[in-house]
Structure formats: structure tokens, C-alpha cells
Amino acid sequence: MAVLDWTTDLTVNDQQQQNLSALYREVDWLTEVISQVICSYLKQEGHEKHWLDIEPPELDQDGSVYADTVLHWQLNVFERLALALAMAPSVRPDSLDFFFGLNGMIDRPFTEFGASSERGFYGFLPTGQTLNFLISANNPEWRIHTSAILSAQHKLMAEQVTELLPADQGHPGFSGVFKLNDQWLNYFISGEQHRPELTASFPAHHLDTPLEWDDLVLDHNVMGQIEELRAWLAHGRILMEEWALGKKVKPGYRAVFFGPPGTGKTLTAALLGKVTDREVYRVDLSMVVSKYIGETEKNLSRVFDAASYKDWILFFDEGDALFGKRTEASSSNDRHANQLTGYLLQKIEDFPGTVIVATNLKTNMDAAFTRRFQNMVNFTMPNAEQRLLLWQKAFNSVCELADDVDLAKIANDYPLAGGQVINVLRQCALTAIRRNERTVYQTDIIDSIRREFKKDNKLI
Known about the structure:
The protein has 460 residues and is of the alpha/beta class. The chain folds into 3 domains: 2-190, no CATH class; 204-378, P-loop containing nucleotide triphosphate hydrolases (Rossmann fold); 384-455, Orthogonal Bundle (Helicase, Ruva Protein, domain 3). Helices cover 48% and strands 11% of the residues. α10 links the parallel β9 (280-283) and β10. InterPro entries: 26S_Proteasome_ATPase, AAA+_ATPase, ATPase_AAA_core, P-loop_NTPase.
């Protein structure tokens, strides 16, 4: 058994070593490029050669995670150079030591190299200016490649692979440190995939569910509208491109889910992603609004940019908090809020993917907002028949029901939403396990329903 474990560990380490070797080769290529760019720029011996003459490492037979990523994204030589520069301080810091050379005319470092110094780190930290120097020092017209790579819309930035840190106030935009995201570095080495993290600058998190499509219990009419949305997710690209629908309508699909809490809005969004093999990202509205005007737009733009590359479904929960009826602009805060709403409406309308906005009350939504959506889905409270199905699915494979339990009567007598049924299930399971058994009795269920009703100041 010990030999088998040792063999498994060796296999993993071999793959990691292969991944590391690929990164080292890429940074070694970067080092040659840096040397040649500086040589050409300073008109030293060998300046006639161009850095593009230095072939980057072959990746077709590499087998590393890094190679697979570069090939899948079809990165060009400028993009590979940027990626290598961003990872260099973490992979091989000495590869950037060429930039420590002094300008003999003024006896100080070359300003155009774009150095950034950080206390406690003695290597050279590249900036956006460093990347621009490598790309355009000898071909000024190539600055457009730098601008494209450092823009928020570029795949490397949108996927949060690379990041250009904010420049100090009053400094040029390219003067911020240009770095590789630590999570992506870990992925390139270990092969462990990651998802973008929920942060103030990326106010969204992955939405998933262990349930399956068959677990969804909705009114027949509601299910019909959801199937329409599912059909769009499955066939929208064919309609837009092959059927030329894209010449007549804007790309993307926008839907509003409205109805009481617990009626399945969030679950439906998660399941739509699951059955169509898409990731669903829930935008955290509590992190969206920034007191700094302009920061909110920037943070949301990162989410939209990433989603457009990944073909995510964006899910805005409690949408009336952000997309509700706009107020009269009686103060600067009101004007900023209205400005933000207008910005979001435009981003959603221009987004080429799928956006779902959930709200408890449709009446709170601005009419100008709802007109821009293709589908308005009313998640109603389940009827007695649907409630019975919810009760049956909830207790299945979790608890054993005593002979006195009459789920049909419970479903008929107590109007509960699906989310409330799950709350009752949880409470009943806790009650049963405290008795050191799995059996749930009628009184357990009624007592738990009573607790649910009390939350809304209702009595049985």
C-alpha cells in the first residue's frame, strides 16, 4: 500500500515539475528578449537583430498547463511576452536584473524601463511601462499592443490572470506594477483550477447547486418560460449567427425573475447554468456600490468583461435594491445613484451573454428598466399539488416519515414556498437526530411549520 501511495505522489510531482519547466523556459525566453531590446535601444553591438527573431519556446508537445492555456487562448507573441514578464518576479526574479543598468549620461536608472520598488523586495518589479518599453521601445507604433494588453477588456486582464495595479495619484497610468495573479501562478504549477475570488474589485461569486433539473418544482406556465430561456442558452448562438438573427436584435438575453422569497429564483438560475454547462456568477450587490464615484463602474466592468469571455450567466439577486425606481436627483448622492443605474442598464443591454435579475417585488422595478428585458418570469407560490411534490422531494433519502405523517394534508393546509419547506426539513432533521433516530413525526413537522410562520408573524 505504501508503494502505491509513493507512486501516486511521484506522478503528481512529475507533472508539477513539467509545469515548472515550462514556466522556466518561458522566462528564459523573456530574458533573451530583454537583452536584445536593450541592445537595440542603446545601439550596442548586435543591435541590428530584432527581438522578434528570438523564437519563443515550442508548446505543441509541451504537455504543461501553461502550454495548454496559451494554445487554447491562441496568445500572440506580444501577449506571451506580457505573461512572461508578469510571472518573472515570482518564477525567476533575477531574469529582470538587466533593467538595473544605469544610464551613463545621468548616472541613474533608465526612466523608460519603468522600475517599481517595494520595501522588502530587492528584485525588479515590472510595471506597465516596462511592458511598453519591451514592446515599443524600438517600434513606437506598437504601443497599441501595450494598450490592448493592459486594457480591462483584454482576456488576460478580464480573466484576472494579469493585473495592472493602480498608479499613485498624478502618476502615468502605465506606472502601476504589472503582476501575475497568485491563483493563476498556482494553477500553472499545480494544475488546480481556480475561480475568481469575491473581492471589492470583483463583486461576484460562483453560484452552484447539488440539485438536478428534475428537482425543480414550478408552475406549468413558469416552467414554460424557463424552458424558453434554457432553449436560448442551448441554441442562441445558432439563431444569432446561422439564422442571422444578430442583424435584427442585440446580442444576449435578459430576464427578470420576480416573486416571493423561497419560490425558486436562485435555484432556477443555478440549474440553468448546470444543465447548459455554464458557470453562474451571482453579483454581490452589497459590495457593488462604492463611496468613490467611478470605482463602482470599474468593479462591475471587471465582472462583465470576465463574463463575456467565459460565457457566464450573470445573476443579480435582490435587483430592486439597485435597479428600483429612480429617485429625483435632489442631492449628489441621488445623482450618483441614478447615474449608476443608467450605467448598469447600458452594460446589461450591451452584454452579449445572459443576465438574470431577481427581485421579490416587480412593482419596485423601474419601467424603463423592465422594458429592456426579453422575459419577465413570475415565480408564484406553489399550489397544494406542487407543495406535496416539494415535501416528498425534500424528505426523500434524508429522513424516515412516521406512519402518522400525512404529507398530502400538510401540503393542502399550509401554504409554504420551497425555501420554507427546506427550512422545515432542516429543523425536523435536527429534532430527529437529537432523539438519536431518523424518524420524523407529524408533530415535528407541524412544530417546525409553526416556527416558519412566526417569522412572518403568522399563526397556525
